[in-house]
Amino acid sequence: MPDMDISIIGTGYVGLVSGVCLAEKGHRVICVDMDPVKIEQINRGIPPIYERGLETLLRKNIGKNLRAQADLTEAVCATQLSIIAVGTPFDGDNIDLSYIKAAAAEIGTVLRNKNGYHVIVVKSTVVPGTTDEVVRAVVEEASGKRAGSAFGLGMNPEFLREGDAVEDFMNPDRIVMGGIDERSIDCLAELYRPFTDVDKIRTSCKTAEMIKYTANSLLATMISFSNEIGNLCTALGDIDVVEVMRGVHLDKRLSPILSDGQRITPVFTTYLEAGCGFGGSCFPKDVKALIAHGRHVGQPMSLLDAAIRVNRSQPDQILNILRENFASLKGLRVAILGLAFKPNTDDMRESPAIPVIQGLQAEGADIRAFDPVARHEAQKLFGDAQISYHDTLASVVDDVDAVVLLTRWEEFSRVPEMIAGKKIQPLVVDGRRMLEKNTVQRYAGIGYREKAA
Ligand code: NAD
């Protein structure tokens, strides 16, 4: 039975999911955060974020081998391994390491008076070199001790996808364990001993950091590639990017055919589909941070630069479709379907819904919105003044000129039946290409435009 004592510094998406799942796997976990509201909620068994399956596991473990607190000193003293899972925002020019440095300094200060070997693991996404150079120096300075003897240092990137975070953490496709030495990596191996049947990579901190950025950059590039092809389909007219991509996916190298003749369609291909762009707390930030890091070391990242540029312009495609179909957007009654950057989460960070709504607001549209879980996040961002929020899909699509679908929530596949009987048919703008074109009377989508006869 594994029984490590671990502290997690930063109890956001990654910290909370990691803490709950590691407790479920049998470790004793203390989650630390500076936000007292989060702590209080977590200790009452209420997750501050929406994530499928999280509440059940939190309720099961809280008060037993899981607790949350603000006191970092006690948490570090009581445990043998501390995971840093604080935010690493991008400040427009650089990855902002201030939270990482602050957490590392606080842990280091505690280590000054703590006896025995302690391991610090960076789980936050940080540019290559951060753990070895920045974190190491900060902890050594604050603790007055040397990495590699008094304390170990590791880098363990997190690959969970918001919306599937618990499932991804409990059943990872790989575990990357970077460390400054074998002893640090051995501690990470012990932490992940309960995770069997999964590939585990032992490597340096720098390589671990690079793996995370490379994985996200690849997926973001695939999305922007598909969107650029989609935009060309729109410009050319009478070519549907969905059909084009279906044809591309059938390449055996993308969708292999097994010896029994059955074809496998990997999830990978879902990143080769056109839409209104990627968002969230990771892809935009991580790709921009890697570009900036490349620039600092004299290595331009022109492909990734382009991936970001394409993505930035993608919400405009939605606004352009509306402008082409209506004489003016002023007073146009628009139903926004989906506010979160993707389904099964309430996260609106860098959601394409934000620039689309801002564009509609600037042109005076009458905006109604519905998202199964992200309403409160949208209200924090936009307030209640210029958007009327609806509680159901049926009510938001009632009596509107246009229905704009921005998040691939399963429920939105019911739009055609919801609007079928309406006297005046709204234009359905499919930003995720999730509906069949012929299921609604007036359809427009990213990557498809009928050329006027
Ligand atoms: P988040 O903003 O949701 O959470 C960070 C938390 O850290 C906040 O609750 C904040 O109060 C707390 N915090 C900051 N400084 C602290 C300190 N000194 N002591 C205690 N608490 C402190 O961030 P997140 O989305 O969980 O991301 C964390 C890291 O993981 C980032 O580097 C991110 O890039 C990476 N990551 C995120 C995801 C994701 O899907 N969100 C996936 C993989 C990796």
Question: What does this protein look like?
Answer:
The structure is a single chain. With about 450 residues, this protein is α/β, with parallel strands linked by helices. The chain contains 16 helices and 14 strands. The strands form two sheets. An eight-stranded mixed β-sheet has the order 3-2-1-4-5-6-7-8, with helices on both faces. Helix 14 links the parallel strand 10 (about 365-370) and strand 11. Helix 9 (about 205-235) runs parallel beside helix 12. The chain is globular and about 75 Å long. The model has no long low-confidence stretch (mean pLDDT about 95). Bound molecules: nicotinamide-adenine-dinucleotide. The site of nicotinamide-adenine-dinucleotide has 28 residues, from helix 1 and helix 5. Nicotinamide-adenine-dinucleotide (NAD) binds near residues 87 and 106.
Helix-strand layout with pairing:
Blueprint: E1 5-9, H1 13-24, E2 28-32, H2 36-43, H3 54-61, E3 66-69, H4 72-77, E4 81-84, H5 98-112, E5 118-122, H6 130-143, E6 151-155, H7 165-170, E7 174-179, H8 182-191, E8 199-203, H9 205-236, H10 241-249, H11 283-296, H12 302-325, E9 333-337, H13 353-362, E10 366-370, H14 375-382, E11 387-389, H15 393-396, E12 402-405, H16 415-419, E13 427-430, E14 443-445
Parallel strand pairs: 1-2, 1-4, 2-3, 4-5, 5-6, 7-8, 9-10, 9-12, 10-11, 12-13, 13-14
Antiparallel strand pairs: 6-7
Helix pairs in contact: 1-3, 5-6, 9-11, 9-12, 11-12, 12-13
Question: What characteristics describe this protein?
Answer:
single chain; 453 residues; alpha/beta; 6-stranded parallel β-sheet; 16 helices; binds nicotinamide-adenine-dinucleotide
